[in-house]
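Handout, section 4.2: multi-component inputs.
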Amino acid sequence: MVGGKNITETPPHQRSVNTVFQSYALFPHLSVRENLAFGLKMRGMPAAERHTKVDEIADFIKLGDLVDRHVDQLSGGQRQRIALARALICEPDVLLLDEPLSALDAGLRSQLQVELLRVQKRLGMTFVFVTHDQQEAMVMSDRIAVLNGGTIQQVGAPREVYERPVNAFVARFMGHDNLYTISARKSDRLITALGELTAEDAGNGELLLIRPETLDLLPGAVEGPNHLTATVAERLYRGSHAEFRLAIGNTTLQATVNNRGRHLPEVGETVTVAVAPEDLVTLHE
Amino acid sequence: MSYSGAVPTARSRAMVRETRHLLFTVAPGAFWIFIFLVLPSAYLMGVAFMTNGPYGLPQMPLSLDAFERLAGVGFLGWSPGNLYTLLRSLWQTLVSTVLVVIVAYPVAYYITTCREKWRPILLLLVVVPSWTNQVIRAFGWMNLLAPGTPLSSLAESLGLVAPNMGLYPSNLAVTLGLVYNFLPFMVLPLYAAFEKLDTAQVQAAQDLYASPVRAFWHAVFPQTLPGLLAGTVLVAIPAFGMYVIPELLGGGKGMMLGNLVANQFAGSSNWPLGAAGAILMLIATFIGLFAMRRIGKRLGGGEEVVI
Amino acid sequence: MRKRTLARGLAGIWWVTLFFLYAPLFVIVLFSFNSANSTAVFENFSLAWYRRLFGNEQIINAFGNSLVLAVSSSIIALVIGCLIGYGMYRHRHRKLGWLIVLIYLPIVLPDIVFGISEMTFFVQIHDWTGLLQPGLGTMIIAHVTFQIPFVALIVYSRFVGLDPTLFEAAKDLYASPIKRVVHFMVPTIKPALISAFFLSFTLSIDDFVISFFTAGPESATLPIYIWSAIKKGVTPEINAIATLMIGAVAMAAIFSMLFNRQGRR
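Output:
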């Protein structure tokens, strides 16, 4: 559905949708200018008008000086921008970006992420951004749709999808590993392999999700509500934060702790994990 | 009203569209080759089983006369003429292929030892003569080997040929012509093989084996086998069916199978006999291709050999 | 020490081979300028044979036939072969074994079998229907038949080398099916089309056997004319035409070398 119309039966060349392809798909037999003008030419725009539009868009993406080069003289980042401009110039209702940044190295990638965001804000155009990278998805989007095998699992703002995933697939896709089967529940008290935990909003799901960054680690064994006693099985020190694998009974729990210069528990140390009831989410398989 | 057939879905419609597209693009060429090559070849094969009529045109009834004639059975009993022609074709193919290998092997290797920027030019120098028409090339050899030319005089003074006979027409001239004609077809695949040669293996072999001959035999030769095989296909199969060279350089005693076949459609017309010879040639071609494919697969260089 | 001997031996073999490859051509060129009517003894430099050549109507006709045959068969083969090449690419995931066999058939069939098949077929059809009188028409048909596979394979391999999403991109940028062919496919494979045309042209000009068997009395090409001239008796005049043809090939070689260099840039 685009603009209230179902376009499934419309052939691609009549849809007001343009695409930025993963491989950029710039035409090798054409110059940059001819590539940019291709869509306009196919729609029958006169040459003079095309020329000014190409110059405008080239200025807009700050590649005005590349316009008369040949495609094979461009770097990866430049090709990416030309591919974007080639789609934007047609002023589609929807711009489809099919993993546009996956062929670039990490530095260039984050730079272009910011640039794309700015372009989108300035034009106010709908961008459909396809990616396999959940970090990129969260950075780039107003709304995320998580797809599995062609069916939509969840649609929502990045925070909603990350913090309140509706099912195990979405949770795992967003990078969550702390999923536990709820074996029994008494109103808002949930029994899992970790022990008994109280959730503010227990829902009715059969899985419990605990996000690693919501956990507090207290030294030694401390009694209290929603407190679990654990042994540090593994510690990965990452500078800004540290990741822990904690053994509780026969299961393990991941925890991420910000490094504020305080004591970071060592492997083998006994710690207490404090879980806030409002951070617990239940969901379905 | 109800239809028993399936309701056309978007998917099946797309299938129909794709099939129509396939037909539209492929059909003209496929039909062309079918009508103008498959049918004619099939007809030719049919002719081989017909009887020779007046003016050499084929006639009913069906018979194996043509094959008997090809084996040498004539009105006057059996004569070995055709059999000699066949054996000569095989012999010429064998000798010229071996000679081509002997010449092409060092030449291809020599090109790989030259500087990289020279190699395409050297290869071009080998290939350019084969771009000239084969009739002209054969004619060049006629000029060179005719009686009275320096080469012929030399051969005469050495007593290799009878006085005033010249080196052409002769079987030797045919062999020379074949080698000349097919040399580039062997040099190119061998060159490709040499260029890919794994020099580490050669060095290892030089360390392991005392003599360079053994190093060559164990490290270099096996690596060039796929190229050698491809070259053999490209040389031996067309050499066996060669028509122009034996016709111009060989004279009556240098006739090969190609000439025997061609003659049945020109002067001494006998279409069924010619068609039978063509079948023999086809069989030889397909046996050759099949054998090379099998050996090629075993060597692992299969794709290169399948031209 | 031994290495140097080997290198010298190889260089020696190379130069001898080169001599072997060019000697027959050189002799043709040399004797085309011979004032005497001999291909064994060179007397004086003369252009007499060339003068006779340009006065010979048969040769001019044969040259014209060769050109008409090569150009028209190459154009037809280009159109048909292109369609097959594209069809093979677009439907490369289907089982097209029968098509591959059909396409390789003209390549693997011995020339002589190819030629006589066509000839017997044309004669038979002519007997029954009066169509396909041997002449330029039948020659064009035969030449197109052996040119199609080469065009198809060249075009196919060019398409295989392309990024498949280019086709999606063309659709995405509003190109209708016809515009996709005109503005995207044809320009993209243009280098392949040019080289396919030149290869077809060369194959046609170079062919003797197939032309020989499908020609009519009025449609002799240059190679056929040379052939019958040789059969009648060797004259230095043949050297003169042959020299012109060798010259054309040498020019083609130089062009292809320059073209190749530019292509690589």
